[in-house]
Automatic annotation (TrEMBL):
<keyword id="KW-0732">Signal</keyword>
<feature type="transmembrane region" description="Helical">
    <location>
        <begin position="374"/>
        <end position="395"/>
    </location>
</feature>
<dbReference type="InterPro" id="IPR005828">
    <property type="entry name" value="MFS_sugar_transport-like"/>
</dbReference>
<keyword id="KW-0769">Symport</keyword>
<dbReference type="InterPro" id="IPR005829">
    <property type="entry name" value="Sugar_transporter_CS"/>
</dbReference>
<dbReference type="InterPro" id="IPR020846">
    <property type="entry name" value="MFS_dom"/>
</dbReference>
<feature type="transmembrane region" description="Helical">
    <location>
        <begin position="70"/>
        <end position="88"/>
    </location>
</feature>
<feature type="signal peptide">
    <location>
        <begin position="1"/>
        <end position="26"/>
    </location>
</feature>
<keyword id="KW-0762">Sugar transport</keyword>
<protein>
    <submittedName>
        <fullName>Sugar transport protein 1</fullName>
    </submittedName>
</protein>
<dbReference type="InterPro" id="IPR036259">
    <property type="entry name" value="MFS_trans_sf"/>
</dbReference>
<comment type="similarity">
    <text>Belongs to the major facilitator superfamily. Sugar transporter (TC 2.A.1.1) family.</text>
</comment>
<feature type="transmembrane region" description="Helical">
    <location>
        <begin position="442"/>
        <end position="463"/>
    </location>
</feature>
<keyword id="KW-0472">Membrane</keyword>
<keyword id="KW-1133">Transmembrane helix</keyword>
<dbReference type="InterPro" id="IPR003663">
    <property type="entry name" value="Sugar/inositol_transpt"/>
</dbReference>
<dbReference type="InterPro" id="IPR045262">
    <property type="entry name" value="STP/PLT_plant"/>
</dbReference>
Length: 499
């Protein structure tokens, strides 16, 4: 369906501008893994890793070449900072609105990109990455909420998934630039890779300046007349009185909750808290960020040359972006649960194949010699199929589902927990990945495959379908769920035909 039919023309340019600025996190995901595989970067900042990488001794274990906690801190420090920022961004999103939080995130990201590009010492890299993390935390807190509140409920899934699509496009762009900049003869290509993060930062600043704030946020701050004007603009019709009434009622209900953080711990919000923690945690335990962060390092570890590893990462990045389009096209047709379960099964099968392939050829010492072309191609194809499974399931749905299931009174607090959990798991996995690879060898993929099985069981038993349900009526899915209904007791005014 043409986008103009989904979003009124009056808001189309602003909505597309919002979508166009969201690939800052994706760019950063892709750029860090590529940069850490560039020899000039390693030689300047991590000489001990560079020496291990070029050690031709037959006793050198390939699995352990990049096992450096300082090197992984360069990648993971961003996510620790994003974890901290997401907590503060919850308050900022509620008090000052979604737009201002986006602008603040863009400014922090811009400063961090500049510091990384001109880095001369490791501490400059780490501080720059932390500033990038503060920016990512602000964006991840505000953008999914913004999109869920602005999008028509019939197409909320597809439009919200553009968040993930732009992340994957940013990731692919980063992989392409890493491949190109690595060819620079002066050895300074890594500076250009890191510095180009300023581009999405500038986009998010300029884009958010021209965006309207959401009606939900305006009502939450007592600006009901402005909320009505924006709702008319967003929906493309003056017939918004019924929806405005629902939004005002939801806001009044939310104001009765004086302490949203404490409310999340009560029995009535047990399903919301569970999903806010479980879904982002499981999203990281798929092992996808191992591929995202360290694809060049991983490919280099299993025998690909420097340029070949960056090329392989570029292929997987392209697969990621293309497969996300499948999810956008199908999420509002087949539903969230179907994509979750199908994608999980696909990832599990691919992880088992990758485990067998790497285990057979590399053994425990990770020194296979020269890989046959057909064998290397088979590994890359398997990883691409795995990436595709993630890209149309846990990738976008991991952001979509939490952003649409929280009631307004706890939405900012719950989204903050969602982002914080995502960031702390991302930090933990990225920080310990090289050590896990060194000690677990190819068994690392078995670990993630086991996590995928647990995830699928969780989705099957505990996640209700949220396709096509207006965000103000989301309480119905919990009241009708065979497990969660014993926790969620509907208020009298909510017992109606809609549920």
């Amino acid at each position: 369906m043409p986008l103009e039919k989904i979003i009124p023309e009056s808001l189309l340019s602003e909505f597309l501008l919002l979508v166009s600025l969201l690939h800052l996190e994706g760019y950063d995901l892709g750029i860090s893994g590529g940069v850490t595989s560039m020899d000039p970067f390693l030689k300047k900042f991590f000489p001990e890793v560079y020496e291990k990488e070029h050690n031709e001794s037959p006793n050198q274990n390939q699995y352990c070449k990049f096992n450096s906690q300082v090197l992984t801190l360069f990648t993971s420090s961003l996510y620790l900072a994003a974890f901290v920022a997401s907590v503060g961004a919850s308050t900022a999103t509620r008090i000052f609105g979604r737009r201002l939080t986006m602008i603040s995130g863009g400014l922090l990201f811009l400063v961090g990109a500049g510091l990384n590009a001109f880095a001369e010492h490791v501490w400059m890299l780490i501080v720059g990455r932390m500033l990038l993390g503060f920016g990512v935390g602000c964006a991840n807190q505000s953008v999914p909420i913004y999109v869920s509140e602005v999008a028509p409920y019939k197409y909320r899934g597809a439009l919200n998934m553009m968040f993930q699509l732009l992340i994957t496009i940013g990731l692919f762009v980063a992989n392409v630039l890493n491949y190109l900049f690595n060819k620079m003869e002066n050895g300074e290509g890594w500076r250009y890779s890191l510095g180009c993060a300023a581009v999405p930062a500038i986009m998010i600043i300029l884009g958010a300046i021209f965006l309207p704030d959401t009606p939900n946020s305006l009502i939450e701050r007592g600006e009901e007349e402005e909320a009505k004007r924006q709702l008319i603009k967003i929906r493309g019709t003056t017939n918004v009185d019924e929806e405005l009434k629902d939004l005002i009622a939801a806001s009044e209900s939310s104001k009765a909750v004086k302490h949203p953080w404490a409310s999340l711990l009560t029995r009535a919000y047990r399903p919301h808290l569970t999903m806010a923690i479980a879904i982002p945690a499981f999203q990281q335990l798929t092992g996808m960020n191992v591929i995202t962060f360290y694809a060049p390092v991983l490919f280099k570890t299993i025998g690909f040359g420097a340029n070949a590893s960056l090329m392989s990462a570029m292929i997987t990045g392209g697969t990621n972006a293309a497969a996300t389009l499948v999810s956008i096209a199908t999420v509002d047709k087949f539903g969230r649960r179907t994509l979750f379960l199908q994608g999980g099964a696909q990832m599990f099968l691919c992880q088992m194949f990758i485990t067998a392939a790497i285990g057979y050829k590399f053994g425990l010492n990770g020194n296979p010699g020269v890989l046959p072309t057909w064998y290397a191609t088979a590994v890359v194809v398997a990883i691409c199929v795995y990436v595709a499974g993630f890209a149309w399931s846990w990738g976008p749905l991991g952001w979509l589902v939490p952003s649409e299931i929280f009631p307004l009174e706890v939405r900012s607090a719950a989204q903050s927990i969602n982002v914080s959990t995502n960031m702390i798991f991302t930090f933990s996995i990225s920080q310990i990945f090289t050590a896990m690879l060194c000690h677990m060898k190819f068994g690392l993929f078995i670990f993630f495959a086991f996590c995928v099985v647990v995830m699928n069981v969780f989705i099957y038993k505990f996640l209700p379908e949220t396709k096509g349900i207006p965000i103000e009526e989301m309480h119905c899915v919990w009241q009708n769920h065979p497990f969660w209904k014993k926790f969620v007791k509907p208020a009298k005014k909510q017992v109606d035909a809609n549920c």
